[in-house]
Structure formats: C-alpha cells, structure tokens
C-alpha cells in the first residue's frame, strides 16, 4: 500500500552481462518491463555504436513489412490479430526472417510490375479500340483525297465539287487547307492526299491542345475529337481518368513533324490508324482478341497476388512484433558499455526495490536460455542523482494517476494525490453536476464501457475522442454514481423531485384559497412538522416558485465554502506528511504550522460560524435565536478581518452568536497576522544563521531541503539527493517572499474559487428546468392520438438536448472546473510535481507505440 501513496523506492544498479547472454537477458527484461536503462555512451554517434548494423537490418525488415501492410490494406484483406505477443526471436532467426521478407517483397514487386505492364498494355489496346471506332466515324463524314484537273482553267470547278462532297460544317477549314494547293496543281491525273495522325489525350488538356495546334500551324490543320464515355484506369496509380480521341489532318512533312511535337508536349498518345476501312476493321478484330487474352492473364495475375497477400496477412502482426522486439533489444544493447576484454557488457539501470528479486530471476532465465555458464551480476550503486518517479497503477487507478501527471510528475517519494483524487474528484464533480437522471445516464455509459472493455480495447481505434472516453471509463462511472448521490441529496431528477417519504410540510390553507391565489406562503412555525425530511431536500421546495432559488442558493453556497475549506486544510496536512518523511524540520515548524494556523483561524472559523448559525437559529426558536436575529456570516467575517464594530442588532436580538465572540475573533485575526512574518522570514533567517555557523558559502547537499523549501529526493528513504550548489541568500529570500504572498492571497482567492461548486450546480439545475418547462412540458400538455405523436417528437428533441447539453457540455464544464480545483486549490498546498517519470524498457509499450505510429501513417 505504501507505493499507492508514494512512488516506489528506486535503486540505481550496475549490470554485468556476458556478451553471449546479453541478448536473451535484455529480452527477458523487456518482457518484464521493470528496468529503465541509462545511456552510458552519450557522446558516441548513433552510427558508431556496436550493434548499429543489427538495428539497420531491423529497420530494413520493418520497411519491407510496412510495404506488405500497405499492399494488404490496398486490397482490403483483413490481418489476423490474435492479441498474443510472441517471444523475441533468437539472433540466428533474424536470417530466416530476412530471407522470408526478401522473398515476399521480391515476389510481390515482380507481380506488381507484371500487373502494371499488363494494365499498361491493356490501356493501350483499349485506347486503340476507341480510336478505331471513333476515326471510322470521322472518315465517314469527310473525304480525304483531292483530284487535280488536267488544265488550270478547270481547277476551280473541280475544287468546288470537292467542297460540295465535304461536310457542311467543315467547308471553311477544308477550303483553307486545300485551296492554294489545288489551284497550283497543273499535271493531269495527279491526286493530292492529306496526312493524318490519331491519338488519345486527357480530356482536361484538350482545349489548350487545340489552341496550340491552331497557333503553331497557323490554322493549316483540321482537328476532330470525340470523348471516350467510360473512364480508363491509370496503370501507375489506379486512378480513373477521362480521355478523348482526336484525329488531325494536315499536308506536308513539316506540319507532320510540328503536330507530333505538340502531341508529345501535351503527353498525348499517338496510335497507328490504317487509311483503308478494311484494314481498320481487321485491326479492330485483332485488338478485341488481344484484349480478351489480356483480361484472362490479368485475372490470373490478380489471383496470384491476392493469394500471396492473404498468406502474408496471417502472420504480419506477429512479424511486426518480432521485428520490433529485436530492434528494441539491439537499441538497448547500444546503451551498454563494453569492458576491456570485449566479452562483457556493462549497463546502468533504475529498478524498483520491491522487484529486485523478480529482475534477478528474469536475468537468470535469460542466461539459461542463452546457454551461458556465467551468471549475470546486478549490483546496487550509491548516487546523488534524483531517481525517476514510478507509481504502480492498474486499469482502475491509471486514469486518476494520468490526471495528476498531467499537472506534473511527482518528485521522487513525494506524496501522491491520486489515491485521494479517486474520491474527491468525482465528489466535487457531483456537487456541481448533482442530478439523479443525468448522473444515471453518465454512470450507465461508464458501466457499459467497463463491462465491454475487453472487446472495446481490442478494436484499437484511432479516434482520439473515443480513446479519451474509454481511457477514463472508471472516472466517468464514478462521476455518474456520485452525481446520482448528490442528485438524491438535492432531490433533483431532470429538474423534478422524488416524494419518497412524503413532505414534512403541511398545507394550512383550504382548497378555495389555494385555487384563487397564485402565491402562498408556508410558515415554518405552523406548517413545518419539526422533523427534517429523512434524506436530502424536502420535495416541497420543487414547487416553491418564488423562493426555491433563494433557498438553494444559500444552501449550496455554504456547502461550497465548507467543502472548499476542508479540501484546502487536507492539502496543507498532506504537506506535513512530506516534511516528516523527508525530515525537513525547518519547513515543518516554520511553514506547515503557520500555514495551518492561518487557514484554521480565519477560514475554518468561518465554517464553524455556519454550523453555529444552523444549530442555534431557527424559526421556531424565541428571540434572540429566532430566524430574524440570525446574522450574516459574510458580514460577520468581513467585520472580523477589518476590526469593524458590528451594527446594532434588531430589537431583542444579540450582536454575537456566542459569548466572547468578539475577543475570540480579534485573537484569531492577530494570531493569523503573526503567522505571516513567520512564514516570510523565519526559514531564510535560520538558513543564513546555519551558513554563518558552518562558515561555508554556500552549503552543498546537507541543507538542500531547508534552503530550497522544497521536497528532498534524498535521505534514508530515497536513492540519493541532489548534489549541486545551493541558491544564494537573495534568491532564497525572494523565493520565500513569493511563496508566502502566494499562500496568503491564495487562501482568500482559493476559498472564493470553491464558489464555482455553487454556481455550476445552480446553472445545471436551472438549465434542466428550462428544458423541462420549454420543451418536454409542451408535449405532455397535448391530448389524444395526435398528442401522442407530438409527445414522441418532443421527447426525442428533449432527450437529444439533455444528452448533448446537460450531460456532455455541462459534464465537460464541471469536469474542467473540478480539475482546476484539484490542480490549483488542492495540490498547490503540498505538491511540487518536479520529478520525471519512470520509463522502463518494456516490449508492451514499444509495440503499442509502434502500432499507433503505423496507424497514423
């Protein structure tokens, strides 16, 4: 139980391992997860360490596994995850693993390359098929040949007949392209042919491609294009792309060269297209036959690839675990030193003292596994270095410890607030969130996550919000349970009350009076039975429309201050445990005692006045202890601190609540004021006096606790203290001044800060009442079958608002305020949080972090 309230006692040990047994021993320690190794080669480059080649081999294996994982995920193949963690393989097994991964990678890359080549061939054949189909339409719409006349005088007539045979839409283009050549033709029987190229281009590149052709060829080309309706698959990345078929008519080799360069610049693919229709039909038939053959080959290739990936998916998780364990072992071995003989590895590590024998057993198992005859040696060392902080946790306490560590990791062997937070955190949350219905929703959600935690944890989702909820499932459950309790105390369930025991107030008015008057007042003298409601608030306050908020305000404001002062006093008492454990007598006498006295004489006295007022004053009591004579606690406290004379009381009432109150209040204020200079000056003066007596400037080591006013990490209970020079006297005075001013002013501000318990509780109750009055009550007032439909819709809307606003948003608000009360108001009284966490060499943590990094990638 000691480790629950303080961190584990740690020891710095020196470990000697035979080189042959080092791998197996470190493997056993990784499975155990209780040793934190120190780097004994901080000045050695990572590439110059002994096992750097093995680490590189592991990196290469991890790269191959990531490649396999990417291909498996691309095909949507499920990877088998048994949840088991195989042991780290022996070093000689690395060769087999490397060979297996190399074979799989090469086979998969070869299959991918073949598939990519086949897909590229398939794409080319598909594009050629579309070209042959579309160009047939182009050739049917235009005439590519021009016949020249035998005499120049008849050239214009034959040219007109050529234009008449062409398509009406292309008359201008063909006249511009053929006119001058036809006019210059002079030899009889000679015909002129147009050259053409056909190809495929991306659809989005077609408009600039057309403009470039027009400008570069000065309008002496004729372009026809048609879209390919079905998208084509890019063999490089598998994306679907939209393309268009084009055919360009031109005359002359110069234009042909220019057109081909432009096509190359726009990455258009050109394909051969025969001029004769019969040749085109024959080519199309051949293309269709080859496409069918390619489809068959592609299917077989994909089946083979799928079989390879399915076989790899069965072992991929285990392979990842094995490789990461090997890499972690060699990375840890790189932290060790080699002795002179090169046959022994030397390491330094932090170990918990309670697990010393367990670690030795693990080392013995590793030695036996390796077959070594030389046993490992684990020696405890003396050190002045601060040990790491190690708080043992389980699945229940882990979330609460995380809340504390988020503020700061505890100093070594400092009091751990986590065990107390298990109770105080959900309780203070419930004071703000108190509602039986809302608490039940939260508790059921937490209970569901607890009951299903194994299945939910196995899912390993990367949803950050869900992981936060699931990690804090026990906190959510306890907050819900405590909220149900405070909801019963407030007698509040969805802004309504439960009349379990029957109200202890009686109605003295007749029926007609009640029906005719909107507001009626019940007198506690006549209408109250004299005994309180057995548990929580009397349900009659729920229908008290005029003074319900006034009554709840007074009640919740007072209990907020009461809980706040008790919480702060408990925090100061926790500092006493720190001072006694570290034997810091100066801080005990001149810090703890004045702080406690200051807090008790002022603020705890105010709490006592609240109880005295509740006990002595009542409506049924005669004067001077009737309700009319009850003084205001706030005014009384202000008059007490400012030494003001109280105002004259009402007739037949007394000024003070008990005999000698004025004297007691003056004495308490004076004693509290006397505590301030003690906290401010006593400790620095004693340190200065001790330095003069020792005639040493400054004192090192021994008086570190007294001088810094903090928590020592040394002493008989620890693993060593800080061995460094102490602060100058001026810095000590400044530090103590800041600490004193912060405590004195903080006592006032922190007490007022606990009023957030009252404010959020009131806001939560009022929001619940607003939702009931303005939403659900509308549906409840409807009648008939139509009213049932309206009520169903209204209830659904009310339930969504209740869960979304009152449970989630208000719950988050109350959670953050509770967290602030613990971090600032409570932990500031005793908790330094200046340590560093114990980070043992653990395979479980390494594999978990590696899996998370892989999922993010």
TrEMBL record:
Localization per record: Membrane
UniProt entry keywords in alphabetical sequence: Coiled coil, Hydrogen ion transport, Ion transport, Membrane, Transmembrane, Transmembrane helix, Transport
Coarse class of the protein's main subcellular location: membrane
A GO biological process held by the record: vacuolar acidification
Start and end residues of each stretch annotated as Disordered: 704-726
InterPro entries registered for this protein in UniProt: V-ATPase_116kDa_su, V-type_ATPase_116kDa_su_euka
Taxonomy, superkingdom: Eukaryota
Gene Ontology CC annotations of this record: plasma membrane; vacuolar proton-transporting V-type ATPase, V0 domain
Stretches assigned to coiled coil: 51-128
Transmembrane segments: 422-450, 470-490, 559-577, 592-612, 663-682, 757-779, 785-809
Skewed-composition ranges (Gly residues): 711-721
Its membrane topology: Multi-pass membrane protein
Molecular functions (GO terms): ATPase binding; proton-transporting ATPase activity, rotational mechanism
Entry keyword Ligase: no
Function in brief: Essential component of the vacuolar proton pump (V-ATPase), a multimeric enzyme that catalyzes the translocation of protons across the membranes. Required for assembly and activity of the V-ATPase.
Protein family: Belongs to the V-ATPase 116 kDa subunit family.
PANTHER family in alphabetical order: V-TYPE PROTON ATPASE SUBUNIT A, VACUOLAR PROTON ATPASES
Protein name: V-type proton ATPase subunit a
Organism: Drosophila madeirensis
């Amino acid at each position: 139980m000691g480790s629950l309230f303080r961190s584990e006692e740690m020891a710095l040990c020196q470990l000697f391992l035979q080189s042959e047994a080092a791998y197996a021993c470190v493997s056993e320690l990784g499975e155990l997860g209780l040793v934190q190794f120190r780097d004994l080669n901080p000045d050695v480059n990572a590439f110059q360490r002994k096992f750097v080649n093995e680490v590189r081999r592991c990196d290469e294996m991890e790269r191959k596994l990531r490649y396999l994982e990417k291909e498996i995920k691309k095909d949507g193949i499920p990877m088998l995850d048994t949840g088991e963690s195989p042991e780290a393989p022996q070093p000689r097994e690395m060769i087999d693993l490397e060979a297996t991964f190399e074979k799989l990678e090469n086979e998969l890359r070869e299959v991918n390359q073949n598939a990519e080549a086949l897909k590229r061939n398939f794409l080319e054949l598909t594009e050629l098929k579309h070209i042959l189909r579309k160009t047939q339409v182009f050739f049917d719409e235009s005439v590519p040949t021009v016949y020249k006349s035998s005499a120049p005088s008849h050239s214009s007539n034959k040219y007109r007949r050529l234009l008449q045979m062409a398509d009406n839409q292309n008359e201008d283009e063909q006249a511009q392209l053929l006119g001058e050549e036809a006019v210059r033709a002079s030899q009889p029987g000679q015909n002129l042919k147009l050259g053409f190229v056909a190809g495929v281009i991306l659809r989005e590149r077609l408009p600039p491609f057309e403009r470039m052709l027009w400008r570069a060829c000065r309008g002496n080309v004729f372009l026809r294009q048609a879209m390919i309706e079905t998208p084509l698959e890019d063999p490089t990345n598998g994306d679907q792309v939209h393309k268009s078929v084009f055919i360009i008519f031109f005359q002359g080799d110069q234009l042909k060269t220019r057109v081909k360069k432009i096509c190359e610049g726009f990455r258009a693919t050109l394909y051969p297209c025969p001029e004769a229709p019969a040749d085109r039909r024959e080519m199309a038939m051949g293309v269709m036959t080859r496409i069918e053959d390619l489809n068959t080959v592609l299917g077989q290739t994909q089946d083979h690839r799928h079989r390879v990936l399915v076989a790899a998916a069965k072992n991929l998780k285990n392979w990842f675990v094995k490789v990461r364990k090997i890499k972690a072992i060699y990375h840890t071995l790189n932290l060790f030193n080699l002795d002179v003989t090169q046959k022994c590895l030397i390491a330094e590590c932090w170990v918990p003292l309670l697990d010393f024998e367990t670690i030795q057993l693990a080392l013995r198992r590793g030695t036996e596994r390796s077959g070594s005859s030389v046993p490992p040696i684990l020696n405890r060392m003396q050190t002045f270095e601060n040990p790491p902080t190690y708080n043992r946790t389980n699945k229940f306490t882990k979330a609460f410890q995380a809340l504390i560590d988020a503020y700061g990791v505890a100093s070594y062997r400092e009091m751990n607030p986590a065990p107390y937070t298990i109770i105080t955190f959900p309780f203070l949350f419930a004071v703000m969130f108190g509602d039986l219905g809302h608490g039940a929703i939260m508790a059921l959600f937490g209970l569901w996550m607890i009951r299903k935690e194994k299945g939910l944890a196995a899912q390993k989702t990367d949803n950050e919000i869900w992981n936060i909820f699931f990690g804090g499932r026990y906190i959510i459950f306890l907050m819900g349970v405590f909220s149900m309790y405070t909801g019963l105390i407030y007698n509040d369930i969805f802004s309504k009350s439960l009349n379990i025991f029957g109200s202890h107030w009686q109605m003295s008015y007749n029926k007609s009076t009640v029906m005719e008057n909107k507001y009626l007042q019940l007198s506690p003298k006549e209408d109250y039975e004299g005994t309180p409601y057995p548990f929580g608030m009397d349900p009659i306050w729920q229908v008290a429309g005029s003074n319900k908020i006034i009554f709840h305000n007074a009640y919740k404001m007072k209990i907020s201050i009461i809980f706040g002062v008790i919480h702060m006093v408990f925090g100061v008492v926790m500092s006493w445990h720190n001072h006694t454990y570290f034997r810091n007598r100066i801080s005990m006498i001149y810090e703890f005692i004045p702080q406690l006295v200051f807090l008790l004489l002022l603020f705890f006295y105010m709490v006592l006045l609240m109880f005295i007022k509740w006990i002595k004053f009542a409506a049924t009591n005669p004067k001077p202890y009737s309700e009319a004579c009850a003084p205001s606690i706030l005014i009384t406290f202000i008059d007490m601190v400012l030494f003001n004379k109280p105002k004259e009381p009402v007739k037949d009432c007394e000024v003070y609540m008990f005999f000698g109150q004025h004297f007691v209040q003056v004495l308490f204020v004076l004693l509290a004021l006397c505590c301030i200079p003690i906290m401010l000056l006593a400790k620095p003066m004693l340190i200065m006096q001790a330095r003069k007596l020792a005639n040493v400037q400054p004192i090192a080591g021994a008086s570190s606790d007294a001088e810094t006013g903090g928590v020592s990490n040394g002493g008989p209970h620890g693993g060593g203290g800080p061995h460094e020079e102490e602060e100058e006297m001026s810095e000590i005075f400044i530090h103590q001044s800041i600490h004193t001013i912060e405590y004195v002013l903080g006592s006032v501000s922190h007490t007022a800060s606990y009023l957030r318990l009252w404010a959020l509780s009131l806001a939560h109750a009022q929001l619940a009442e607003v939702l009931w009055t303005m939403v659900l009550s509308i549906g409840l007032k409807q009648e008939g079958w139509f009213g049932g439909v309206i009520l169903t819709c209204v209830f659904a809307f009310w339930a969504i608002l209740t869960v979304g606003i009152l449970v989630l948003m208000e719950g988050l608000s109350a959670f953050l305020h509770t967290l602030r009360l613990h971090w600032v108001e409570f932990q500031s009284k005793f908790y330094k949080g200046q340590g560093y966490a114990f980070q043992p060499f653990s395979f479980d943590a390494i594999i978990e972090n590696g899996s998370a990094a892989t999922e993010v990638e």
